[in-house]
Design a protein that fits this description.
The chain is globular and about 75 Å long. 36% of the residues are buried. With 677 residues, the protein is mainly beta. It has five domains: 132 residues, Copper Amine Oxidase, Chain A, domain 1 (2-Layer Sandwich); 104 residues, Immunoglobulin-like (Sandwich); 101 residues, Immunoglobulin-like; 96 residues, no CATH class; 180 residues, Aminopeptidase. The N terminus is likely disordered. Helix 5 packs across helix 10. The strands form twelve sheets. Strands 48-45-49-52-50-51 form a six-stranded mixed sheet, sandwiched between helices. It has a five-stranded antiparallel sheet with strand order 7-8-9-10-11. A five-stranded mixed sheet has the order 20-16-17-25-24, with no helix packed on it.
Amino acid sequence: MNWKKLLFTTLALGLFSATTVYGEQVKMDLFYNGKHHAYAAKEVKISIDGKAMVPKDMPAVIIDGRTMLPMRQIAQELGCEVTWNEAAKQIYVMRGSDIIVFTVDSKAGYENGKEFTMDVPATIVNDRTMLPVRALADALHLNIKWDDPNRTVIINSDDTDAKEEPTKPESGQTTAGTLTGIQTPSAKDADQTFTIQADGPMGRYEKTFVDDQKIVLDFYGAKSSLPGEITKTNSDIVTGIRTATHENNGDSFTRVVFDLSGKKDYEVKQSADKKNITISFGKTTVDKISAVHSQNKDIITIGGTGSFGASVAMTADPQKIVVTIPNCQSNLKDKINTDELQYVLDGKVDTSKGNTVEMVFRVDDLVQYSYREENQNLILEIYPTTLKNMRYDKNANVLYLDKKDKIDTGSVKFEDHYLDGYFDVTLPGDYEKLYGYGTYDVKGTVVENIEVSTKGGSTTFRFKQNCISAYEVTDEGDSYAIRVKNPKEVYDKVLLLDAGHGGKDPGTSGNGMQEKNLTLTIAQKIEQELRGSGIKVYMTRDRDVYPENSTRAKIANDIADLMVSIHINSGPETANGTETLYQVHANDSSSRLTSKQLAEILQASMISSTGNTNRGVKLRTDLLILNRTTVPSAIVEVVFITNTGDALKISNPAYQDQVAQAIAEGIQEAARKFPLR
């Protein structure tokens, strides 16, 4: 197979922050998932075959509790060849005769054509492909360990290198028993001990990788009858358990991964008969707390013994910061003295949840927080955002901006990134002095937060939304209002255009093609055809991902007047032509468009334009996406991918354009002939 070796030369270096400091602290701006993130954390070092790796342009970073490594540099340090396929967003790593393929934002990878699954996908961060350390280890068959005191990822490319071995194999022992079960705590407030059980001696096991977010145990020679995933753990410390059996250079082992909510002290012991492994998490005790105001911050220091493993979150109505410490006991009073604090209104300790201690701090609006663990202390800092002169009404879903400077509301720019979960409203002018910058944590049902930033002489309000929304900016006299609305409140005609299948669901295949790729191509062409038609088009996907069919139907019901889903058919080699599917809905009315009428118009337009064999419209009561929709909906089965003639046609971009035009014209005809509301 030949690939153009781009070696990522198409990737820009511009977003890498000049504020990066290696050694003690890494501070930089990270851009991923369409958003900038301020990053500050102790440096994660990398050692490869005993040699410290000096980051060239991107250090290791921790994102959402996962250690992410710059794949290109590490792969090259290991003697691998790295190439990039821009069109497919795929990275090829070639090591000897092995070819490993990663796809950006996908958990599926391929080793020599065989699929494997990662817990988190490869991610583009600052125009660099970053891969979670465990996925890199599994894919390249590396021995990776975590040196916690030195915060170092230790990578050994030679599996024969010495490893941390809590248990050595007995003389002559080459096999082990079968892992039969994992005993979890009886309840979250019970003793937090987990027991891995086997029907015989386990033989050799290794802690191959340990960090603040996981414990990984490999049992060599051991077979497994364990489930692949355990989600009910009865624990606030262990959030899930994953198991799998692997082969590495002829060495068979079963891997058990404990996913953790945070850092916790623990002890691993093996029974005398070697049939059980216990992992016991030590209980944390909190016995002191201080609260002071200093340098415009409320600083709360919680002291105790053991590792906290705390999670911290902000909630709304009223706004609170909640510190949750699992497997913990408290010697504190119920009420926390907050008299010296400026932004914290009151605080309390909640021990009613058994083994878990919660500390709840009620705080002012427009504050933010950070926290860290340091020397058996959890330090929580609460400070105001720079945001000002604004308020958000969660009942009406409106952001009000105090009117102090004149804003040309007619020049406001809107950028809808609904598939990525956000919407940008950009005002002409730099209003940082007036409104500040930072993140407004709304925590509403429609809007999660609003990120305010200035750049290039304009001010952008980025709304992170929990559902697809439309936006309007109006002059309210004493304020400007950015109103968040349902799309049907803003647009006269709204279409949800669905590219069938996607991601993990390829659909049908034939003649060297996959359905999911063809449906996406055609849907994108239809969307282009409908621009300027007066129909607002939303798509269920614009990339190779898989939204659940129930999710697609819900979106249609929530925001759209009609839905059209694009599919490719399959069947006997002789089957060919176009058919359109529909369902009769209980709310069908003679006063507006029905699904059957929509199907008939789309079918007629397709046949008239393409000359395909007319297979007619068909009532289908067994398709979830049609059953769950309440708006007029139809599925267009464009051609048969299993028919040589149909396949030849649909592979031609010119024919795809013809199909897209026919469907777009059918949609416009239906919207013109019949009322949609």
